[in-house]
Amino acid sequence: MNLKSLSKLIPFPSRKASILVCETDGFHLRGAVINRDGEQLTVAFSARSEATDYKVAVAEVVAALRDQDWGGHDAILLTPGAFSTLIELPVSPAHPRPPIQMQEMIRWELEPLLMQHNMLWSVGQILLGLGYLTEAQIADVLDRQQGKQKGGSLGENAAQVYSLKRYGELAIEMGYITPEQMDECLAKQAWLRSDGDEFGCGWAAQVSGGYDKDAAGEAGTYSWLVSGANLGMMRQWELAFAAAKVELKEVYPLVGCAAALLDEMDDAVLLEAHAGLVSGVRIQSDAVSMVRLQQSTLSSVLDACLETYHGLVPPETKKVWLTTAFGESDGLDDGLSGMIGRAIDWLPLQSREATPGMLGAALDFLKPKGSRRCCSVSVRGPRPPIWQRVEARAVAACLLLLLVIGVLELTLLVRSDLAQGEHARVADAKKDFDAAVARAQAQIDAVNKVKADIGAKEAELSKLADRFDFFAIELPARASFIQSLLEDMAATMTEDVVVNVIEETPNYGFRVAGWALSDVAAQQFIQSFKAAMATWGMDIADPIVRAQAGRLGLMGYDMHFRLVQIKDEPEAVPAAATPAAQPGTRKRARR
């Protein structure tokens, strides 16, 4: 039994856990401590920060939770800077590659998608989210940067000059924003992206119910739900949490995690709209089969949901679920239902203090094997199981060595104390004995008592020596004899012979009873076994072969004989006639 099979024996509903779930849309940070008891999720504490700097926001949220008596030290983060998608890999879920190889394979697939995803958080989009620019103003600044203007071009020289200026500088120059607003925009941009090109990734195999893990698709590939996030962004968030004495464990995408809240579904679509993003997840046979991510604005959420839905359908699905940040549809479900011509089911909101995505991410993190409906990125990168890590094995070896040394030292110390105590006792007894002889006859009784104690000790030592001889000499010889007896019997048996009973008696040696198909087979077995046991000084006594029905009603010959020492008579066979024999031992062998 390995660790995986052992973990299956532990009932999942009996476990309890808690985690701090933080969520940012790039402009605010909210946190909620979510407890899990069985399959139930409850929000214990919650906090929110409107700070411009993400480090200050993390410190404020953690401080507010500490004031509410939260004493945990682990957290996960939902951010638009991470995203999920579905890819095909030539890797079977039953036999995944090592974590480092899996990460390299997924990076190759995710690199262009991550670069495209980072473009969503440009300066213009963040200024739009902050409310400092409108969509028309964003287009005007972009046209100016490209050397365009209403009614014609600004000329080649003007286009070259403006193209060298940054987007924010042009927006300030055109009077749309102030330098302070631009600084706030850059501070918010640090919440979502970093300048580095390295990124981490996570993965979860998508195996549907009743699906053979070893059966590949048409192209020999398998579906994997993967997530990616910029490594520099994760590091800066990790440092921010570490400054508040909290360890950031995982990073989840902002949208898509609510799929973990759905019960096991045969065919369903979940649309999740939050913070200018719309995520669509299609679940078939309890596995994610399609993922779509669409950017939207406050005025086009319905269009983004509709476009995402049509990216997942056809084929038609049995059920369509819809959810938003805090369950406020504002007529979104009715509008979408009218456009697609079918009913929309609203995902129930379990708490007003945590979004469905936060609850789904908490459920995925707290489950022993995850939900497989969403996927996170480990902040520390992929690591092998703890029992496969070199440092863990080295620590275990050192601890074992220290334990052995400690046990030996303790044993020697105890023995030394016992020896010193015994020496002191004997010395005192000798003094008492010498004093008793010199003083009076009354002390003779004390001397005799000491002598009696010494005799008792010697008797104990003699018994200990006898026991040592038994375990060191007689018992190994006995084991070797029994093993040889069984091996010789197995070697001399033919397919026509069956041994039913091998019994060692106190006075008559070994009694063997069996059955053979023919008289010749029985006699041949007895003679062969007799010759084999002669090397042990054993002989066959009282062989009896007679016709008798055997198993399944077959006619054959019943045989009985005894195995005894050659020098012993049947009436006087002692209990230890065979090497290290023990009375009452009974063996049975069948073939």
What does this structure look like?
This protein has 591 residues and is an alpha+beta fold. It has three domains: 12-133 and 177-383, 2-Layer Sandwich (Nucleotidyltransferase, domain 5); 390-471; 480-587, Alpha-Beta Plaits, CATH 3.30.70. The chain is built from 15 helices and 21 strands. It has a six-stranded mixed sheet with strand order 3-2-1-4-10-16, with helices on both faces. A five-stranded mixed sheet has the order 13-12-11-14-15, with helices on one face. A hairpin with a 2-residue loop joins β12 and β13 (287-295). α10 packs across α11. The longest helix has 51 residues, at 442-492. The two termini are 30 Å apart. The model is unreliable at 1-15, 152-161 and 568-591 (pLDDT under 50).
Reading off the top of the CATH hierarchy, the class of the largest domain is best stated as Alpha Beta
CATH evolutionary superfamily of the largest domain? ATPase, nucleotide binding domain
Shape summary? elongated
DSSP strand tally: 21
* Category from helices, strands and their pairing: alpha+beta
* Rg measurement, Å: 41 Å
Query: What is the helix content?
Result: 40-55%
For the biggest sheet, the summary is: 6 strands, mixed
Instruction: Indicate how many domains the architecture comprises.
Output: 3
Strand order of the largest sheet: 3-2-1-4-10-16
- CATH topology title of the largest domain: Nucleotidyltransferase, domain 5
Low-confidence stretches: 1-15, 152-161, 568-591
> Kindly, what is the distance between the CA atoms of the first and last residues, rounded to a whole number of angstroms?
30 Å
Strand content: 15-25%
CATH architecture of the largest domain: 2-Layer Sandwich
